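Posted in: Structural Biology > Protein-Ligand Complexes

Title: Requesting predicted complex, 2NL in pocket

I'd be grateful if someone could produce the 3D structure tokens for the following input. Sequence and ligand are given below.
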Amino acid sequence: MEEKIQALLQEVSAYSVTDKPGLESFRIKFISKKGALGDLFEELKQVPVEQKKSVGKSLNELKQAAEQKFSELSELIASASTSGDTGLDLTLPPVDNKVGNLHPLTQTRLRIIEIFERLGFNVADGPEIEDDWHNFSALNFPENHPAREMQDTFFIEKNPDILLRTHTSNVQIRMMEKQKPPIRAIMPGRVYRNEAISARAHCFFHQVEGLYVDKNVGFADLKQTLYHFAKEMYGKDIKIRFRPSYFPFTEPSAEIDITCLICKGKGCNVCKYAGWVEIAGSGMVHPNVLKSCNIDPDEYTGFAFGMGIERVTMLRYQINDLRLFAENDVRFLRQFQSVT
Ligand code: 2NL
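-- Reply #1 --
Done. Output follows.
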């Protein structure tokens, strides 16, 4: 009998109810005359006299425990029903689910990588703090080229051989120095120029450069590769044109334009009524650049190109101020949530 009492004690203390019917079941099961307690008091009559005192004491403890539990549970249910059932107000609107999104520049970079990876390009990166050789000299910049001057490049004052890279071409140079052709890779990354910050310029921006060096790489490869890129990025109806240009590291060099996305070539203020917008610079890798990296220009040729990720993103989403990308204003950034 003592065992039964102990088992019931445990059951009582572990019992929980959530509503009034549950409370009533508890009362019937334990406390009522026909419940467990009633039965036990009945059984007590049969207990031998010498055990009666101790069993009776345990039984009383159980009775007190059951009554106390009953009043505790009653109070709990009473307070829950005054605050609206379970204490939860299911009619409240849900708290906003704050899912973040990738920065628009990151989204554009990932899209560019996706397009070129499918053409068999690897993705490479390298240092943002660079030496003069990898940023300028190996790229066939003449000693007195204006891009080397202090207003364009951030140099380390104590050692002007060290600078912040002005393009990601340094990564291509490092790759060509280490690895022999075939080389087919793109280099996304942050670059730095000492410019006054405005809607069209910043002291840092992001670039993707590309390089393809192998035997028999020609201008036709450059054209088709960038045409394919433009169609993937901006839509298959886009037209592309090449304009002669100059870069020290390519010869011949060309600027690449696409038909304006806004006016489809008719002329608007985005394309300044030209019907065309510039998307990249490109050209055949200058023989001197290949020589700098110990690649024989009589055996190998290559094409290269470079584009600004900010520029691509501005065209894609019709953004008119470059500064927005670096301000971290969530009212701007949040608008790119659905695009991820
Ligand atoms: C632009 C133009 C360009 C390259 C970058 C390059 C790199 C090596 C050799 C030859 Cl290692 N060329 N890069 C070539 C043409 C244009 O960038 O407007 N960038 C934003």
